[in-house]
Automatic annotation (TrEMBL):
Subcellular location: Membrane
PROSITE patterns: CYTOCHROME_P450
Stored SUPFAM superfamilies: Cytochrome P450
Topology class, membrane: Single-pass membrane protein
Cofactor: heme
Record's keyword terms, sorted: Heme, Iron, Membrane, Metal-binding, Monooxygenase, Oxidoreductase, Transmembrane, Transmembrane helix
TM region(s), chain numbering: 7-26
Swiss-Prot/TrEMBL GO biological process terms: secondary metabolite biosynthetic process
Protein name: Cytochrome P450
Keyword Oxidoreductase: yes
One CC-aspect GO term: membrane
Organism: Coptis chinensis
Length: 507
């Protein structure tokens, strides 16, 4: 959606005119039984509300908030050929993801670009609800993200945390104490996930190269105008060529690591740096219901990239908002630091300490309430025509769940605008982040498609906050008197002004 803001309005105007003129020729006769979609702004034929959104001058989520105020908790936007249904209330999310969980558990059709990168929906996040999804998800959850498995990767986290602290220390020393928060947090999580995926050692240069490639892939996956208006695809041949190039580059870079891991497994002891276990090991011989053969190398790249994509920017975004909140409220920083001190004394904080830290856990929960790293859950679709809030939901609709209207609903929260970790202490307020007991805040989604990385993400966020606060005292850079909490939509919802902060080593 980010591209909408930069659209050339004149270009759109001309295109819109041509398209609208042609629409007149396309009559509505022959349409099947009328359905009652949720309300929404009237749009133009064929292009729907596309130009209203593009020309509003607002960020996409601001537009969604405006529509929510105007049309209520469920509304429709027609974006070119896509019907997008927005769901913004806890009751309706409960109806969709819990009461009608199975029906709302699918994913919509992919864009042509995403089809290439997902190997035609051969990933956990993109697969339609069915046997492929079940096989891939079961493998990811049981083979990789279970509590036992997560414990096995403890050393990987220890090493990544040491690297993180060292990088911040070096950067701070070279820049009068000033560091970029998001970039460093991203790097640390990326190191962990790369190691978990490929199980082979990589130097910092290689990690940075893969990280750059990973960012290029994410940019390439951004929606384009012709994804909404396929009629315009002849104008996008250059972009399509670029997609193929990026995909080739991705395969060229990552397939050698797959081969290296295969060889390490086939010749035990041949590579002393090889880890005892990696996500790839679960995938080499994976049996997927309805398929005869194991995943190809291309599919393995896709499945590993999914783990990297799912866990990197989401977690790092959480860290950026966390440090911003810590700087904004020194009292919070003191409470976090004092709790760490009283729990671990002078030794380094370890992930085993985290469950004992009540305030840290309350802080992280409040962080995910106030700043869910993705404002929209991944797009859902229904497996068969369904009803939601009394409206019709057709199978070709994208169902978009907007998280902040739930986690900041004044009917569910006291003073929802205020960032206050204390709300979760001594039972003042409660919320089940899995959404199983109630829908009040669901930063990881809810129901069948709930984020399988929830457990790992909570370890990573808690651990990084604890480490960063134990090692450094955080404050605003001298030119910034107040933290600006405005946000912008990138791959996740990051701070509009990327956070720079002063990190003063405590020792
Ligand atoms: C703070 C960090 C994270 C946040 C906020 C987050 C959030 C989400 C959300 C909102 C969804 C969509 C749920 C839905 O469709 O209803 C999701 C799905 C997913 N996440 Fe995460 N996630 C995080 C970390 C991770 C990690 C660490 C991994 C893996 C290592 C991961 C892997 C996935 C996958 C594979 C899916 C697709 C699940 C499916 O379609 O069945 N995420 N995540």
């Amino acid at each position: 959606m980010a591209f909408l803001a930069s659209c050339d309005h004149v270009f759109f105007g001309v295109i819109a005119f041509i398209i609208s003129a042609s629409i007149v020729l396309v009559s509505t006769k022959g349409m099947s039984k009328p359905i009652t979609l949720p309300p929404g702004p009237p749009g133009w034929p064929l292009v729907g509300n596309f130009f209203q959104v593009a020309r509003s001058g607002k960020s996409f989520f601001q537009y969604v908030v405006d529509m929510h105020q105007k049309y209520g908790p469920i509304f429709t936007l027609k974006m070119g050929t896509r019907i997008m249904i927005f769901v913004c209330s806890a009751d309706l999310v409960h109806e969709a993801l819990i009461e009608k969980a199975q029906v709302f558990a699918s994913r919509p059709a992919e864009t042509p670009t995403r089809t290439i990168f997902s190997c035609d929906k051969f990933t956990v996040n993109s697969a339609v609800y069915g046997s492929v999804w079940r096989s891939l998800r079961r493998n990811m959850v049981q083979g990789m993200l279970s509590t036992t498995r997560l414990k096995e990767f403890r050393n990987v986290r220890v090493s990544a945390m040491d690297k993180l602290i060292e990088r911040i220390r070096v950067e701070a020393k070279a820049n009068d104490g000033v560091v970029w928060v998001l970039k460093n947090a991203r790097f640390a999580v990326f190191c962990i996930l790369l190691s978990m995926c490929f199980g082979v050692e990589m130097d910092e240069k290689t990690i940075e190269k893969i990280d750059d490639l990973h960012k290029t892939v994410l940019i390439t996956l951004n929606a384009r105008l012709d994804d909404y208006l396929p009629i315009l695809s002849p104008f996008f041949s250059k972009q399509r060529k670029r997609v193929t190039e990026v995909r080739e580059e991705q395969l060229k870079t990552l397939v050698p690591f797959i081969k290296k891991r295969k060889s390490a497994l086939a010749n035990p002891g041949s590579d002393p740096t090889a880890a005892t276990f990696a996500y790839l090991d679960t995938l080499f011989d994976l049996t997927v219901e309805g398929r005869k053969s194991a995943p190809t190398d291309t599919e393995l790249v896709t499945l590993c990239s999914e783990l990297l994509n799912g866990g990197t920017d989401t977690t790092a975004t959480g860290l950026e908002w966390a440090i911003a909140r810590i700087i904004d409220n020194p009292d919070i920083q003191s409470k976090l630091y004092n709790e760490i001190k009283s729990t671990v004394g002078d030794r380094k904080v370890d992930e085993k300490d985290i469950e004992k830290m009540e305030y840290l856990n309350a802080f992280t929960k409040e962080l995910l309430r106030k700043h869910p790293p993705t404002y929209f859950s991944l797009t859902h679709a229904v497996t068969q025509p369904a009803k939601l809030g009394g409206y019709d939901i057709p199978t070709n609709a994208n169902v978009e769940i907007y998280l902040p209207t739930i986690s900041e609903d004044p009917k569910l929260w006291s003073k929802p605008d205020v960032f206050d970790p204390e709300r979760f202490l001594s039972g003042k307020e409660e919320a089940d982040i899995t959404g199983n007991k109630e829908i009040k805040m669901i930063p990881f989604g809810a129901g069948r498609r709930i984020c399988p990385g929830l457990g790992m993400a909570m370890i990573h966020v808690n651990l990084m906050v604890a480490k960063m606060v134990q090692e450094f005292e955080w404050s605003a850079i001298p030119t910034q008197s107040k933290i600006d909490f405005s946000e912008k939509l990138e791959f996740t919802t990051v701070m509009k002004n990327t956070l720079q902060a002063v990190a003063k080593p405590r020792t």
